[in-house]
Every structure is written in structure tokens, then in C-alpha cells.
Amino acid sequence: MVTQRITDFLATRRPDGPCLVVDLDVVEENFRAFRRALPDSAIFYAVKANPAPEILKLLASLGSNFDCASVAEVEMALNAGVTPARISYGNTIKKERDVAKAHALGVSLYAVDCVEEVEKIARSAPGARVFCRVLTNGEGAEWPLSRKFGCVPAMAVDVLSEANRLGLKATGVSFHVGSQQTDTNAWDAAIADAKFVFDALAEKGIVLTLVNMGGGFPTRYLKDVPASSAYGQAIFNSLTKHFGNQLPETIIEPGRGMVGDAGVIKTEVVLVSKKSKADENRWVFLDIGKFGGLAETMDEAIRYPIVTPRDGDEMEPCVLAGPTCDSADVMYEKTPYPLPVSLTVGDELLIEGTGAYTTTYASVAFNGFEPLKSYVI
Ligand code: PLP
């Protein structure tokens, strides 16, 4: 969303080169909307979405907790002013020495999805709380996170039993329904799976208390998406359907939904050309591409809204590509992107919905291009 504050910032500061501008007022509004949507769930912001210190500090001051994927992210959250009790080490894939470092920093909540990971935590963070991630099918998500993370619910029972046997606190179940999840009912099957694991462990005398319902809350790109209140209602209905009046403690870990629409990337048209006179589509090359931060255009998964100074002119489908000497650096070709026929070299474009998963994906110096600059206002 190009807010007035972003427009004013770009007009007065005129930063050179591609850059991301994030409006903290939008982040704050998103945080409050999540609070209203799921008032009984603790919010653990997924730091990976955008770890800018200003964002972490704002969220810390609003009462957010933090889902971290690495020791570096744990340190970022601590630097934002939160205690380790407000941090979850949510990556299921950790080096044992990183578990030891996080333990030394005071982190006591860890994700696992197999016995091998449980053994590392038992050795390097004795007595820690662990939750086991279960697989989801990722249907309805534009950026699925299935397959790589999680185990089947029956195995989660074994993993958490082993955690308990090794002296850890088997605390709960987690899942992620896939990022940019457009189906508000996608949480239902995973909550049913969590209940299955709760019941199976209760039979063994192990009482779980926590369901970590992950991220997945969308940002509006080209298509409208349901409001966070609709997600809140659907999730609450599923929790009561499966857990009755014995609701567990719950966590959500929004990343994209917290910061995506707060950011806008300013970019410039470097070249407009055709491959032959008969070429159907013009090629529009920008000064940012897949390696400059727009990695989520991979497989054309995320289609960002683009504002041009010539909106209102006649439009035609264009191939949209980045500036590097890598032929993979083409963003939209299978489904060309409609842009004004009059678009020309030097025009500045605004790519909306780019507050999440951009700065951290940008390469440090591929082809000598600087990493994506970021301004948080
Ligand atoms: N939690 C975990 C464990 C994740 O891996 C991710 C994203 O990769 C998130 C939360 C944030 O997901 P989203 O950006 O879809 O909200």
C-alpha cells in the first residue's frame, strides 16, 4: 500500500537506486488487527519476514513475541528489548551448537519434527519446552511450506514421548498451513491433527498445553484476500469444534501478514526492448529482480501490484525482468504482466506488498549490484 507517508518520503528524500520503504504505522495497524482477530492467541512475529530493527522494536513495544529461525534472529529479538521468555526457536533444523547458544541466551522453547532433533535439544538445552510440527498439505497457499517441515501426527506422538523420556517438557504441537494462505478454513484439518496428538499423549499421561498455529495470513497482492478477522473467526470455530470448551493455549506466527502491505519498493525502468519485430511482448527490465529481493517471483508464485506514473494509459502484457546477467532473473514471463504501452526508460515504478521476504532475500553483491536498501519510516 503506497501510504501518504511513503509518497512524501520518496518525494523529499529521492533515494537513488532500488529501495524498500516500510511504513511502521501500517505494521502497527496489522499487529492490532491480529490482536482483535485472535484475542486469546499470543503473537510471535516471524522475524524472517523482515528483521529490520525498527520493526522488531515497534512490535516488542506493542507486546509481540518473536519466532526466530536462527541464533542471529534470536539476538535480533533480544536487541529489540524482549526477554528470552518471549522467543521461540521455531526452525525444526538446527545445529546442535546453535541450540546450545540459544539455550545460553535463555531461550527455552524449541520446534522439533523428529527424534534426532529432540536428542540434540535434550543434550544442549536440557529441560527445554518443545513442540512438534506436523505436516500439512499446503493447499490454498500461494507459497506452500509442506513436505520439508513436520511429521505425520502419529510420529509426533512418538517424538513428543521421546522428548518427555529425555527430560524435556513436551509442550505442544505446531503446524504451518502454507504462506499466503487464501483459504480461511485451511487451519481446520491441522487443528484436528493437533487434537489427535493431544489425546494420544494424554493416554500416556503426558499433558500438552500449546497449539502453535503458525503463519500463513496473507498480504493483498493483485487479488483481494479475506481480512484477518475472517481468519480469526474460522480458526476460533475450528478450535472449539475440535477442543470443545478445553481450549489449549495458542500461538500465531504471522510474518507476511504483519509487514507485507507495509512496504513498497521503488524501482526504475532500465530498458524496454523486443527480441524480434514479431515479438508479441515487450521486455521491461527493472533495476531490481529475483536476486535484488524479488525472489518470491520464483515460479511466478507471488504477483506484486505495480504502480506506474503512466497508469491510465493503454496497457499491454510485458515480460518483466531484473538487471543481472543471469537468465533466471526473469520475474513474469509465463504470464506476462500488464504495463502501460507508454512506459519508458527512467520511469519510476512502485512495487506494492513488498514489506515481507524481500530485503533478506536480496543478494549481497550479485553482478556488483548493492543489496536492497531499506528505509523504515
Ligand atoms: N512460522 C514459521 C515456522 C515459518 O517457517 C514461517 C515462514 O516461513 C512463518 C511462521 C511465517 O509465515 P507467514 O509469512 O506465512 O506468516
UniProtKB/TrEMBL annotation:
Modified residues annotated as N6-(pyridoxal phosphate)lysine in this record: K48
An individual GO BP term: putrescine biosynthetic process from arginine, via ornithine
Active-site residues, record numbering mapped to chain: C325
Catalyzed chemical reaction(s): L-ornithine + H(+) = putrescine + CO2
Top EC category: lyase
Positions of transmembrane segments: none
InterPro entries noted in UniProt: Ala_racemase/Decarboxylase_C (IPR009006), De-COase2_CS (IPR022657), De-COase2_N (IPR022644), De-COase2_pyr-phos_BS (IPR022653), Orn/DAP/Arg_de-COase (IPR000183), Orn_de-COase (IPR002433), PLP-binding_barrel (IPR029066)
Orn/DAP/Arg decarboxylase 2 N-terminal domain boundaries: 25-259
Gene Ontology cellular-component annotations: cytoplasm
MF (Gene Ontology): ornithine decarboxylase activity
Involved pathway(s): Amine and polyamine biosynthesis; putrescine biosynthesis via L-ornithine pathway; putrescine from L-ornithine: step 1/1
UniProt entry tagged with the keyword Metal-binding: no
Domain of life where this protein originates: Bacteria
The enzyme's E.C. designation: 4.1.1.17
Cofactors (names): pyridoxal 5'-phosphate
Keyword Lyase tagged: yes
Alphabetized UniProt keyword annotations: Lyase, Pyridoxal phosphate
Family, as annotated: Belongs to the Orn/Lys/Arg decarboxylase class-II family.
Record's protein name: ornithine decarboxylase
